[in-house]
Amino acid sequence: MTPGALIALSIPSPSVSGFHIGPVTIHFYALCILAGIVVAYLIGGRRYRARGGRQEDFETVTIWAVVGGIIGARIYHVITDHELYFGPGRTWYHMFFIWQGGLGIWGSIAGGALAVWLVCRSKDLRFCDLADSLAPGILLAQGIGRLGNWFNQELFGRPTTLPWGLEIAPQHRPLGYLQYATFHPTFLYELIWNVAGACFLLWADRHWRLGRGKLFALYVVTYTFGRFWVERLRIDPANHVGGWRINSYTSLLVFAAGLVLLIWMLRNKPGQTPPGTPEKVPAAEEQDSDADEDRDDDPKDAGDAGTEG
What pLDDT, in 10s, does the model give residues 124-134? Predict the structure, then answer.
């Protein structure tokens, strides 16, 4: 098939990656991330309220989850691509210039989860309730965020002649691939996988009635399974160990950890805790409850209640 025919059948890439409002540049990548956060917030908030949680608690957790996710994403990027900031000719403090790009999804997940856990500890909330509530929305948000890679013409896969190949402009092609015009649209593969995975999580939560924590573990297994084979397709510059990208190892390790956790929970924590069940009943409430029961059992109280009718 001729190059012209391939282009005719391929997926075009956007010619622009943002727009200007006065002196301010708005990047479509940032808008995709913001849209994903909004979707995760709306879905997660509705699910958390259905579990008996309070909206104000969820809002507090969401704010800190976003902050922790951004910080974690940047830290992971700096660690795995340290040569961009340290060494001859590099400026180390550019690692703080987050607006120049460079975020790692694995750091985002870890940082966000840590922030949620810390808030839950400080506010005496169930971490697993929040994690299960957020899981489907997070996966959907990750899919929406991948659209940003499409606008930026980045993080695509190997060259392909398939009819859904992605057109990449010459200036965005890595060295060694300048002669190719169409590549695997890994952003689309991950988008489809994440949307399907989010639907699966919602279905599983409704039909299997998974207990607290199991749905989040299932989210980890679902996401990492898809992310592993997507990573195997990508050709963008990355650090390799033994011929594999570092993110491939990360995907495999997190998948294994999530699977072990899910199996352990299914075996050792069967069933489902009713939504809204508190961690423990405060002593004062237990005393009030006992006092109420004593009054109900008092014959005098029962007689008085009968005369009121």
Answer: 999 999 999 99
